[in-house]
Amino acid sequence: MADGIVGEFFDLKQGAEADLLAMQMGDFYEFFGDDAETVGAELDLKVSKRSSGGENYSMAGVPVDDLTPYLKALVERGYRVAVADQFEDGGDIERRVARVVTPGTLVDPTDTDARYLATVVREGDRVGLAFLDVTTGQFRATAVTGPDARERALTELYRFAPTELLPGPELRNDDAFLTRARERVDTTLTLHDAEAFAPGRARHTLREQFGAAAESVGLDDASGADAVATRAAGAALAYVDETGVGVLASVTRIGTYDPDEQVTLDATTQRNLELVETMTGAGQSLLDTVDHTETAAGGRLLKEWLTRPLQRRGELARRQSGVAALAADAMARERLHELLSGASDLERLASRSVSGSADAGALLRVRDTLALLPELDAALDTERLRESPAAGVLESVDREAAADLRETLAEALAEDPPNTVTQGGLLCRGFDDELDELVERHESALEWVETLAEREKRETGLSRLSVDRNKTDGYYVQVGKSQADDVPERYEAIKTLKNSERFVTPELREKEREILRLEEARGELEYELFRELRERVAERADLLQSVGRAVAELDTLASLATHAVRNDWTRPELTDSDDLDVTAGRHPVVEQDVEFVPNDLRMCTDTDDERRFLVVTGPNMSGKSTYMRQSALIVLLAQVGSFVPADRATVGLVDGIYTRVGALDELAQGRSTFMVEMQELSNILHSATEDSLVILDEVGRGTATYDGISIAWAATEYLSSAQSNVASPKVLFATHYHELTGLAEHIDGVENVHVAAEERDGDVTFLRSVVDGATDRSYGIHVAELAGVPDPVVSRAREVLRRLREDEAIDVLGSEREGGETQQVVFDLGTGQFSGGGRRDAPPDGRAATADGGKDDALDPATESVLDELRGTDVNETPPVELLAKVQEWQSRLEEE
Ligand SMILES: Nc1ncnc2c1ncn2[C@@H]1O[C@H](COP(=O)(O)OP(=O)(O)OP(=O)(O)O)[C@@H](O)[C@H]1O
């Protein structure tokens, strides 16, 4: 067992509840054992060995002054790092863990993204969630209830994408929940003291922090849905407090929100619509495309708006009017962008002031950003903007307090302060009398030294004399060798150099002591005064946050206006009806890169002209997915309060947008593509209401054709209210199963549209325009050709297709509701023949039935071997192109025969 210093390290580590411990030893913070190895590997630090108690231990260290960047790097990689500081107590050295820096409590991260710490608790079918960003003081809590509460909680987690997640006691062993949370969110899981989640304790913590404000947002409840939100919020605060990172005071307010006021966007949909990141990681997300914000806080808010569209008409109208007014006033918009580009992140600066990590430069940025307020007012004081919500954004700001704080900072801070806060030069003259006096004395002492050489030359008549200072000798008088013997007696030699001699005088020594004393006193007093100043700023954290948020909102509105103007977007009309009527709609991201062909979309629920469910067909690559995604994005943008990419749009507000599109990356997570597809479909069928918008892209594709068609068919019937007791949302359903276009004839509200293509002399031109009616052509072979599939395969595929078409090999003949049964005609791969109509059941041994009743007993060996292979081929597991190649090969073998 290690003893001494290493033993102390391990003892401290044991009680620290952290992944790593940095322990101060004099001028270094040291890591030992595995911690040293980890830190060495992560940060490229040198690892050495130290022996203790007869054993060798790895050891890595960083200088005390450099700890912060190392800590930050470790924490940003997901580690929780405890810091044990060294204290001197009457000569004894004692070390204790002063703070634990964790991913969710890092105050000064390198990027500007929101960094949420999330807590989640569960009581039966109620789940409470709290999200706290200590870097900005943003704090929200909510509760979701109902049988799907866990699912909805996951949706919220995905929206906030917390960097650290604290599950309450009931969820700690809920592996399914935690696994799913971590699948979607790159988060550090922390098991914090269960006691912090207890209802009484949580209520108490909240009351301590917010007083009556906790009650006013409903977080003082001992029962009901809010009780779980209260527990989550209290635990988050307690955790931040216990880590000791000292930012609690920057959490100045808490807000609750009702997820029902937002548009439900499940995790899959947020990903499928590529709102903030693309599915492949390449290309532009919606956020990348529409983001013209100037400030980090504006960027954060825009992201928040895009991932949390609203159902609240009033708020949406306010945002829309703000965007409209800014869109109409180009001059003011330009001026705003210019001013905002000089604004700093006040929310972050508030937290840094509270935690004590703000330096003089940071406070100068606070001063300069506060100074923008009158200029922003002036920029907004135009005819178009004066009365608009854009100007209204700044109304909530306490101008007087902002001006006071700005003035205090202006009076106190020196321009161009140094980066360190302990060496003076931070504050300006006239701010503090005592400091002024010290500075004056310090400077006059310095001046005395500066003019000393002149005086000495005059007095001694020595011309080769100078006065200087260095680290080892302090201040000295230097005299050239030729004159060194003529110095007066009061000169005391301290060093002989090649060409000169160095001396000090008692007077100079005295002055030097005085200068050092004054330097120290000045540094200390200045640092003290600076800390007081920083505390005054910290006390106004709420003010900085409110100015910061107002500036962010102005930035976000201006960004949306700029994008709308540059791209000819239009202000959508929002209604409470179910209508969705878009003229010349475009995809906001794709339109940036290609000559986009705009398309209309009309969906409504009027009984005489009902179009609730659109079956979208069209060739591969024609633009079906683009059309459907653009429809979803237009609705989403409308419910963000933004303009939309269209000539005209009427958008009936939806309560949720659900999508099911090709799953690209699930295989990596070890789940079958088809399983994922069905889970997602299941979620949609359970969750979508008649006010929702559903986008289904080729549902059923992941399995054998007939299974796929059957599932798609049934899902269509279900969603289109053919089953009367189920709510029917607005649905866009793209499919290659042309059989499904037949549904339009059978079910009210189901209509066909297709993306047109033109075929001339074997060449296909994609027209990209969406027109009413169905199409029965996929041009899949054409796409295969474009993709470089070898010619023989392409031409053989064409031949097979022609035969299939001629013989209507695969046909699904209707699904009349009354007693009608799906009928299939089967192309028998074994014989190359087709079986007749009529319902067929598969033979129990899975063998393909033949048209003549299965008479395959006296077959030649070649046919037998083909049949064997055919039987052994799992259609579900074989990619279509491979199947095609196999068929080709079988056929040629049979032909040879
Ligand atoms: N309206 C449009 N105007 C211009 N280009 C478009 C339009 N719609 C789609 N495109 C282009 O066509 C490409 C293919 O579109 P998309 O992926 O939507 O086709 P798809 O019909 O869904 O294909 P598949 O059936 O093979 O999945 C897109 O990458 C886009 O560049």
Structural description of this entry:
42% of the residues lie in helices and 18% in strands. With 897 residues, it is an alpha/beta fold. The protein has 5 domains: 4-101, MutS, DNA mismatch repair protein, domain I (3-Layer(aba) Sandwich); 117-261, MutS, connector domain (Nucleotidyltransferase, domain 5), CATH 3.30.420; 281-389 and 540-566, MutS, DNA mismatch repair protein, Chain A, domain 3, CATH 1.10.1420.10; 573-781, P-loop containing nucleotide triphosphate hydrolases (Rossmann fold), CATH 3.40.50; 802-896, no CATH class. Strand 24 (692-697), helix 25 (705-719) and strand 25 form a beta-alpha-beta unit. Helix 13 packs across helix 22 and helix 19 runs antiparallel to helix 21 (506-539). The protein is elongated. Residues 590, 594, 596-597, 599, 618, 620-626, 768 line the site of adenosine-5'-triphosphate.
Nutshell version of this structure?
This is DNA mismatch repair protein MutS. The protein is α/β, with parallel strands linked by helices.
Looking at the structure, the CATH topology of the largest domain is: Rossmann fold
| C-alpha end-to-end distance | 80 Å
Rough shape? Answer: elongated
CATH homologous superfamily descriptor of the largest domain: P-loop containing nucleotide triphosphate hydrolases
Query: In CATH, what is the class of the largest domain?
Result: Alpha Beta
Number of E-state strands: 29
Tell me the count of domains. Answer: 5
Stretches with pLDDT under 50, minimum 5 residues: 663-668, 808-857
Query: Which distinct ligands sit in these coordinates?
Result: adenosine-5'-triphosphate
In round numbers, the mean pLDDT is 84
* Individual helix count: 30
